[in-house]
Amino acid sequence: MNQTQQTAITQPILQALQGLRKTDEALQATVNQLHLALNVSCCLLVRPGAGQVIISQATPKTDLFADTHCLQSHFQLQLTEGDAVVCDRLDTILSPEIQQFIQTSEIGATVIVPLVCHQSYLGEISLYQCNRPRQWTAAELDLVQLAAKYMAIALYQTKLHKRLEQAEQTEIALRESEERKQTEIALRRREQEFRALVEHSPDVIARFDRDLRHLYINPAVTQATGLLPACLIGRTNREVWGSQNTIAMWERSLRDVFSTGQSKTIEFEFSTPVGTKYHQSRLVPEFDSQGKVEFVLTVCRDVSALKQVESALRQSEEQFRQLAENIGEVFWITSSNRSQLIYVSPAYEMIWGRSCESLYANSQTWIESIHPEDREHVANLVQEQELQDWETEYRVVRPDQTVRWIRDRAFPIRDELGEVYRFAGIAEDITLRKQAEQESKLLQTMTQAILESEDFHSALQVALQKVCEATTWAIGEAWVPNAEKSVLECSPVWYSKVEGLTEFRTISREFVFPLGVGLPGRVWAAKYPEWCRDVSTEASNVYLRAKLALNAGLKAALGIPIVANDRVLAVLVFYMFEAREEDQRLIELISASAELGLFIQRKQAEGEIRKSLLKERELNRLKSDFISMVSHEFRTPLSSIVLSAELLETYGQRCTEEKRQIYFRRIQNSTQRITQLLENVLFLGQSESGRLEFNPQLVNLGHFCQNLVEELQPDEGSQHSIAYISQGNGEQVYMDEKLLQHIFGNLLCNAIKYSPKGGVIRFELLTQVEEAVFKVQDTGIGIPLVDQLKLFEPFHRATNVEKIGGTGLGLSIVKQCVDLHRGQIAVQSEVGVGTTFTVRLPLGQSVGR
What is the pTM of this model? Predict the structure, then answer.
């Protein structure tokens, strides 16, 4: 039995001893507490006397247990000797009278403890168990013995008080008696009885006069203080003990009783030769015939043992309270069927975000607070493990909609019979541990996937996908610095959990973000994450794609830099479809994944190395092609020059003037061909080394195109002709005329060269507000589809050119010149039908490098 039950049983008796409660009420309360604590069928307190009077009983079956004298009679000798009767099975007693009593009363087991104080038999306390035997535990017997001890003390004190009152009444009666002698004899007899009673009392009983001197004190004082009664008679407490604080309290209390005539109970701590003692004293006034207080009778009891028990109980309760209220875990206790919450520690309010009072009022709020995805699992576990230990992890949703992870453990508490009567448990917040596990798992998964990815952009694709899968973000995109590190460009990779974002993605590819501009640019500049609650409501100078986000339904956004060696490799931007305040947890989780920058940088380096190897192979191939081309293209005009020179040298004087001019023109054409070839090679070399300059100047496009057509227009009688068509205002635009010469000179020459059957070459110019559109169309041999993929690579020639001469440099030069203008070139071709090249060049001074 615990300290709380012991206190509930002994407290009424202590109150009665202090005069705070009537003895009969205290005895009744103690019997009731015993009945409840031990869960017996009946509990009786019986005092000896005429017909055995039942003082109290705690059962509605009063008629069933009214006649128990056969049991008391059977065990009378054992009880009067102070021994308790413990019987687990009454049916083992062979007495016919008891067997008949068992049949009528249905009693199966009993405990009878005598009430004995100072060898005085004052009655017995009896406990009965009906309908079945019962094995009484040591703890139950100790509890009954403790209750019997306190009841005996109370009954003994009541007996003393009654005898004192009887003595006083007798003394008054004797004084009023006509026969003085008989009165004196009776008084002496009462006095002798009183003395006999008090002389053997364990309590210190004393009488004080108005000078606060001891008129009488019983021998118990020696046991309590170590002093003989003779040392105190005629002396005050101050004269005996000196000036102690307790003495002053005693003096005040005695004077109060003398002045008021009211009884008083005090408790005090008293230093004696045998140590410090705790006492409880009852001060009772004694009146003379005029009703004036003549003496004060005191009954002082040593309650040191009781104080120690109470102190231990308070200390135990305080330790439990401090433990439960100061640990970070939630400590809880419920009834065996979990219908009633008995206790929950204050940590519940901090973790659950709800008050303990709300849980006491409705214990179902606990199961209602569990995350919907975990609620059924927890409910089933609790039901399946009804009488067993159980442990589980689940999530709870706080009133502010934040989620906490909980680890909950429950343990059944069993009584002496092994039956579960309570459940206790400890619930701890493991959110940080779960978050760490989530981060670790995400980082591990991302690291492995990044290491297995093919290149830098594949690694970015992995990072976007894993973050979106592990969080609530719906879409992820990446922005990477361009080659010059001047702006962020949209990476070709992205990830989305939903469909319908094609327009947002397509238009986003057209954006670039300089340092500090837009969400990606600001993250790039700060190298620090940035959260935006709702990008669709931001101003266009804060979020440049606000209108696009609004159309796509995108709201909250988060930009995270991927940094390696203090250099931003990329900026990841994530979106969700709801507006949301900044969530530091999400930022930390994604920032942790962004710390994989070194691995991504490794992939970037691997990609650059791979590109370098490919470029080196390509250069080797180009060198080989260049040598082959030079050896072929230079050999033909050089051979023509050498042959023409030899003919002029050998037969010059005999040749006609017309013949000599033919040889000279042949030499000049071959020389121009070699010069043009060298210029093309030089131009390509400058472009590859980055030394090619772009110098836009005001150019009249109409005049330029007209002059170019006149310069390249074939002679009369040729199978080819150039038709020039112009639309719009082409005057005074900023372009590099030298580069324009390379672009359209090569395109027109190719159109003529690869139209062996002749035909009209269409050269069109359309000048618009922001760009100029050029078209060169022929009806020649066309370009096979397989060759169109490598059309602008140096030295590449289509597979159907057959014996048509060429270096494979022209279109590569054209592409370089178009790029310098920040323009675009496209080709449409069909073998045997013809080819159309479309060139779009922006107008204005700001284009180019």
Answer: 0.35
